[in-house]
Amino acid sequence: MEFKEVVGRRRTIRYFQSWRNVEREKIQIMLEAARLASCAVNATFLKAIVVIRDNIPRETLDALKTPVSGLNIELAPVHIYTYADMGAYKGAQARLKKLVDVGALNATHGWSHKFVDEFVWPNILKPLAEGANQPSVAAAAASDAGIAICQAMLAAVDEGLGVCLSAFQHEAINKVVKAPKDWIPLWVLLVGYPAESWEAGGQRPRPPLEEIFFEGEYGKPFKGDPKVTEQMKAAKMIQAQAPLPWRKEEIKALARMFGLPE
Predict the structure, then answer these.
(1) Which of 150, 197, 244, 257 is the most exposed place for a label (fewest CB within 10 A)?
(2) pLDDT higher than 90, residue 241
(3) Residue 245 has pLDDT above 80, yes or no
(4) Pairwise CA distance, residues 2 & 16, whole Å
(5) How far apart are CA 95 and CA 110, in angstroms?
(6) In whole angstroms, how far apart are CA 208 and each of 53, 118, 225?
């Protein structure tokens, strides 16, 4: 698929083919997409642990369920538990120097090994590393991790998979995954082949562009060009909005298939 169509096709899938395994190579592609994501100070804040659902003990799987995500967790054959690693600031000094060496950070913008050692490390990186528990520092790390998770999700869609980002009970799953204590739990990315149609009833309703984006200053809406909107529709980035006319019947069929209330 072209990129715009991948963005347009992404849905939160909540009905998975629970009996169908996901090929390991597709999971690797997702993780690779996350690894290549942009990250501040060349620090890979995202850490993730891939778990096959059937390898999770039943009592742990039940403990993971929340009122809003229980069925999703039960149906998805692959769980990817994601975390923000607050220790990623450590070692960023050397990683920035590597970016200088490969020409990603250049003298044209003031970068050099000396600049990293004498300015960036003492004034930026060292305070961040020492203040990793501060909310603003944690938020920055979580933001970078979110960018990487998003790329993994889009890669999954491109591979024909369904994804659902969900909260999870950290203490319950940590008995299995044994994540380090300084990792901040983020989300579990549920992965599998959709049991529902890929459209999942249509593109989710969102506020119009002008309500959430502004130009120059708050209060001045960023106004979209109708011609550009038509171009995005042609590229399948903007698709038919939910609900599609057959969606209720699809949900009834899925409920019958999985033995769920209608």
Answers:
(1) 257
(2) yes
(3) yes
(4) 24
(5) 17
(6) 38, 47, 13
